[in-house]
Amino acid sequence: MTWKLENSPDFGSGSNGKRVGSAGDLIMARTVFRLDFDGHYGDIRIKAIGRLVDEANTRYLKDLAKSVRATGGDGDFVKDEYEDGRAQLREIYTIFPITSNFSLILGKQQVAWGEGDFFRTADIIHGNDLRWRPNERENEETRNPLWLVNAILSFPDIESQLQMILRPGWDAAEDVVNLRDIFGGRGTQQPFKGFDLTAGNPRNFHHSTGDTNDANYGVRWLSHLSGTNLDYTLFYYRGLWRDGVTNSVFNPKNELHTKPPKLFGLIGETIYPVVDQWGMTWNYDIPGLNLVLRGEATYIPNRPFNFGSKGFVTQNFTVPVPGLGGIKEKSVLSTLWALDKNINWTMDLLKTQRAGLWTVEIFDDWITNLNNGDDLVAVFGNGATAQKHHTIFTSTLTLNYDYDNIQPGVALLWDVNYGDVVFVPSLALRFGDHWRVYSEATFTFPKHTVKPVAQGIGEIENDTHLLGLDSNNNQLMVRVTYEF
Amino acid sequence: MRIDTKHRSATRRLLLALSGAAGLAFTCVSAADELPVGTVIDAANFDAIAASTFEGHTIREMVPPSVEILIKKYNLKLTLASSDDRILSVNEKFWQTSKKNAETINFDPATRQISGYVGGIPFPDISIDDPHAGDKELYNLFWNFTYFGGAARGDFPFLYIDGKKGVERTNLWHQTVLNLSGRATEPHNLPLGEKFGIQKRDALFALEPRDIKGTGTFTQRYTDGRPDDAWVYIRSIRRVRRVSGGSWADAIGGSDVHLDDINGFNAHPTWFKSARLVERKWILHWNFDKPQQNKAGKTLDERFPYLDLTNPPYWNAIQDWRPTRVNVVEIIPEASHPFYSNKILYTMADFPGTPAVLEAYDKKGELWKVETISRGTATDESGDVWFAGFCSYMYDLQQEHATLLVGDEFKVDNRIREDDVTKDILLVQ
Questions:
Q1: Residues of A whose CB is below 8 A from B255
Q2: What ipTM does the predicted assembly reach?
Q3: Closest Cβ opposite residue A400 in set B209, B227, B253
Q4: I want to staple A160 with a disulfide (CB 3.0 to 4.6 A). Which of A151, A155, B134, B329 is the partner?
């Protein structure tokens, strides 16, 4: 369950005529049943995971839906987007040990590459369902399992492994891409809650530049640098740009030479072009310091961006939606530099029972061939332009009390370029063999937010950035779990 | 037996207090009587029969100070049984290999490393007068898993017990251990063990409850004492994460056990500053020759018939205790060790390197934890007898909390190959 901790500045035809969203509103009441199955048949293993979701249509969500319908949208997002009532066989796969050094894992599964926690530049195979909760840290629940052929060839004499991934293209389109709350629900950025942004910009999963029904594939080499404490991977994956870009109806013939949008929307369609992704990850242990360093580097030579921070501008008219200028491809190097350290001083200073775990992650996106005139937008619909480097610092601290029955934690995200900060304190409690309670509050301190001008319309500005998108949305989440 | 009085001071104060308040029960046994098999030693009669003997050794001598605390303060009862009923044995091939070491093995006092090791136990015969006896017994402990054959695996429950309230929770784990070097049977070293100097691979992952199911660790330990390579799989994010080899002494989350406590001693000898074989003596100890779990049991009491989970402190073993000849080893950690100032480890002299009782002292020199480690045996497909199963019961006397590992189903499985125990084992759980 999640409650708002502050009032929203939304416009909307709320049930009582006032703004939609006040401190104390219950914005999520979601129940999930999960069932795991494990089977062995000789050396062959079968695993299956099922999930049933029940989400209540709270008063807050009803008010948002009412506002969405009043502005031309569908408004059925509790059922359609948060998947109330959906029973799903999330994963079902079989592990075949073909030889002692060759295994095949076939079926609907999750394959997570990379070393990152918050921003995962190398976790590139799957789409993520961020609609019901965009900042869910247990990402096995938000990573969409896919039908994959996962082949693993081991070379034990050189402590190495070759992994080959083929996604034949049998998946539901929504599972392949990242899905976010842009339909006016509780996760839609301010001030667009209650306004369906997809109404004028629907998703096109089957565009000529990227079709979820087409196969994607990749390969990863894992190894260990002999004589050192360094593990590394090298990978390549040809898949879709899962965040999508808007193919502007005003400038559909762009550098990609795409066909005009097949689905005629008000301003364009969201498409998911194919991209090539090259990368490496590494981790390095320094035992004397009880410290692990880790990192990622992912290079995309053809990453699509929307341009036009003022919108689509001609001599005669302007459509003031940032990013409607069209699509440009740029080469981007995304990197992660991180460390994990057990810190013993928490036992003396904070009276923890054992060492706390401290992590630091620094992410950077580097648009290597950004030119002054490119006018790329960082986030479609927001006027801030993309910078050559965009760096975000994150850090977490997890403490342990009472035999790990009490685990407070804190996470901090800081946009180094722009100063936006997100602060997330949390508390995990364990009661016996069956009950678990987890609570997490999210506080966003943006340097600037998009102010509403009218219902569903925000001011034209250029100072709202990634971490500021969730402004005016401070919230408290409590999760109670019973394990059978 | 000379033990640093600083470490005895707390114990001595407690013992004095306990003896004054014991309310000694009068028994018909005089101080020098030989006690019969079946005698139960408990808090009520301990002081009265401390001078009595069993198989020629006094009870006082055979009960380490830490176990005496468990008896007097925590209601542990010892039922005396004959040492003639030998529970443990290991096949002759193991001993032949171990004895072969004497022809080639060398201990370098300068580096505290060994060379010329073949397999099994490096030093099966240690003289009490050997100035390096302590280190040699540590090497026996380091290679202790060779008593389990080439490889072993099994599921075992952890019980977490509050000494005042009872069992807090339980969970179920699986462990697979593969010895890549020092195997008692040919080949003594598997190819990767030979090539990379790997001693063993150890995969430990949770089976129950659901929130930790699949979470586990994979550790690769090396023969020369370089830091372990270790990884943890965190199921909720579906990722294998590197863990620092420098965390070899850290606490196992949620338990009373630190990593280097496992099996009494879970480290390379050179990771500790020094070790001294203080003496050989006899103590009362227990091992097992029958299943320690009743899988058909519906309640915890039924599932664990050899544990008193009903009466405070809810953690005592219900066993037959037999006189066991032990080495008493004092282990001094480096000053940088974050937790311990000293450890006293009692190892079975007839099975060198096999732990029986561990006493761990905190940085102030106060007794902190007591661990009893017991073994069983099993026969492999070739008819050879190996150690099998372990019961490691860790008691934190300062927190009055215990973690009990009932691993009686951990059995030798020589079918396990190098390819079966890799980091990928974590991903398929």
A1: 403
A2: 0.90
A3: B253
A4: A155
